[in-house]
């Protein structure tokens, strides 16, 4: 099995892709690319058994309805709700709220934050995959699954804050050290240096690990009423088993 991890930003310069090969009982980082363009992202997803994308796969349904209503001049504020309370479902998808409930982390709002630019790019990538015969199930059931590296790190007991940007290379190095200690079966090989130098690269690696968890059924999936929203908004797959379960049957 090969899993790909895509740390998707609005522009190629901050986008990284990582490929993990999974021989019996081990994982090997076989390639990392920083500065990935759309063509490389599509090729990575097409060639992987499972690809984890660190980017929202859609917008909140209620936000889409709100924008449509606003265009027609018919915005309606629910009775009894004011301010942040009624805007919550416009800013956060169902999956974002579930992630917050389960981890205490709040994903960036695709409708009210700059990550919306990355999601516009992601929409074009998903459309190209569909044109090539790999339509995406935004619930995570197909080749692509939406992932959230910070939540994965937290659930797997790894440092999940303070490692971003060049000013925090020490913390990034500590994260890599902890990953090597907790996952001795993971061979970073010649790409360990770039993982220590680029938080985009390590997020891509975490996304590839999360893709493996999804492929093995070791992640959360939408249930009940969540399923309908996830089909259009996307669904963040959170790990439900320890890191070592990616390479064993426990």
List keywords for this structure.
250 residues, alpha/beta, Nucleotidyltransferase, domain 5, six-stranded mixed sheet, 44% helix, globular
Q: Could you walk me through the main structural features you see in this protein, from its secondary elements to its overall organization?
A:
The protein is α/β, with parallel strands linked by helices and 250 residues long. It has one domain: Nucleotidyltransferase, domain 5 (2-Layer Sandwich), CATH 3.30.420. Helix content is 44%, strand content 12%. It has helices at residues 38-47, 61-72, 84-91, 94-103, 115-131, 149-155, 169-182, 192-197, 199-215, 226-233; strands at 2-7, 16-21, 27-34, 50-54, 144-146, 186-187. A six-stranded mixed β-sheet has the order 5-4-1-2-3-6. A hairpin with a 5-residue loop joins β2 (16-21) and β3. The longest helix is centred in the middle third of the chain and has 17 residues, at 115-131. It starts with a strand and ends in a 17-residue tail after the last helix.
């Amino acid at each position: 099995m090969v899993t790909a991890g895509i740390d998707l930003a609005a522009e190629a310069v901050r986008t990284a892709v990582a490929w993990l090969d999974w021989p019996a009982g081990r994982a090997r980082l076989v390639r990392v690319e920083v500065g990935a363009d759309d063509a490389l992202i599509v090729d990575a997803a097409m060639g992987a058994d499972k690809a984890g994308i660190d980017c929202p796969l859609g917008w909140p349904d209620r936000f889409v309805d709100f924008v449509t209503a606003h265009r027609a001049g018919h915005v309606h504020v629910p009775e009894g709700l004011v301010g942040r309370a009624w805007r919550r479902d416009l800013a956060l998808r169902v999956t974002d709220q579930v992630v917050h409930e389960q981890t205490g982390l709040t994903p960036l709002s695709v409708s009210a934050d700059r990550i919306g630019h990355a999601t516009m790019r992601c929409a074009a990538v998903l459309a190209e995959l569909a044109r090539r015969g790999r339509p995406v199930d935004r619930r995570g059931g197909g080749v692509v699954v939406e992932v959230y590296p910070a939540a994965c790190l937290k659930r797997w007991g790894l440092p999940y804050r303070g490692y971003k940007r060049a000013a925090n290379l020490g913390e990034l190095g500590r994260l890599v050290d902890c990953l090597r200690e907790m996952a001795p079966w993971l061979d970073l090989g010649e790409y360990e240096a770039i993982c220590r130098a680029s938080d985009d690269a390590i997020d891509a690696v975490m996304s590839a690990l999360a893709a493996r968890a999804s492929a093995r059924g070791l992640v959360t999936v939408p249930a009940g009423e969540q399923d309908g929203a996830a089909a259009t908004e996307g669904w963040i797959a959170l790990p439900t088993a320890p890191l070592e379960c990616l390479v064993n049957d426990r």
